[in-house]
Design goal:
Elements: H1 19-41, E1 43-50, H2 55-66, E2 71-77, E3 82-87, H3 94-103, E4 107-108, E5 111-118, H4 123-134, E6 139-145, E7 150-155, H5 162-171, E8 175-181, E9 189-190, H6 191-200, H7 203-206, E10 211-214, E11 217-220
Parallel strand pairs: 9-10
Antiparallel strand pairs: 1-3, 1-4, 2-3, 5-7, 5-8, 6-7, 10-11
């Protein structure tokens, strides 16, 4: 078998090569370069998934995602309630991936944070912050209330951290004064604590609000 047939590239300027061999080797090289470029373009995202009740749920999501053109690989971890997706952003975007999960009957869990911001002097300042935050990968939405000097951000913590959000605001010339989690400030307990309290008959006494931290996601539990 020739070296060209094996895909081992030769010197295209080699005078012993025929025109046909030169052309074939050139096509092999081009094809290899395109494959490498395609692999370099692939991205990975992690998404927190809600609504799964069994391993079949995770398999259902994997099957739906694998049908999307551009999704190279999708793995759903039922125990961690997390999806890891590798995809080509030139063929499919994150919004389409998340919509597919939603259409399958599950939900992608987004975090929300409220930040107190200082340094704004007009409505244009608020718009500058919104624009900067919305340009960041992992930020779904950002709303700035100039009157109250507060910024509400909906984001994916797997793609951008709270520190990254704060830095984005600071980079456009403003100060983050005080981070403030949205929602109720009632106590959050882990699943093992709740199970232990239930066994001891103390669940209602110690976890009266019924909030637990389930694999990093907050869920309401009917006690």
């Amino acid at each position: 078998m020739s070296t060209i047939a094996l895909g081992i590239f030769t010197n295209l300027n080699d005078p012993t090569l025929s025109e046909k061999e030169r052309g074939l080797d050139k096509r092999i090289q081009n094809s290899s370069e395109k494959i490498n470029m395609s692999e370099e373009k692939n991205k990975k995202i992690a998404l927190n998934i809600g609504g799964m009740s069994c391993i079949n749920c995770s398999l259902t999501i994997e099957k739906a995602l694998s049908k999307l053109n551009g999704v190279k690989h999708a793995t759903i971890n039922f125990a961690a309630e997390k999806a890891i997706i590798e995809y080509n952003p030139d063929l499919v975007d994150q919004k389409t991936i998340e919509n597919t999960i939603t259409e399958t009957g599950y939900r992608v869990i987004h975090e929300k944070i409220m930040l107190q911001v200082g340094g704004m002097s007009c409505i244009n300042c608020a718009q500058s912050i919104e624009k900067a935050l919305k340009s960041k990968e992992g930020v779904y939405n950002a709303t700035v209330n100039f009157a109250t000097e507060k910024v509400s951000v909906e984001y994916n913590p797997e793609q951008i951290s709270l520190a990254g959000i704060s830095k984005t605001i600071q980079d456009v010339g403003y100060q983050v004064i005080e981070p403030e989690k949205t929602g109720n400030s009632r106590p959050i307990y882990c699943r093992m604590d709740l199970l232990r309290w239930r066994i001891q008959g103390l669940a209602k006494q110690n976890c009266q609000y019924g909030y637990i931290n389930c694999y990093g996601n907050i869920h309401r539990l009917a006690l």
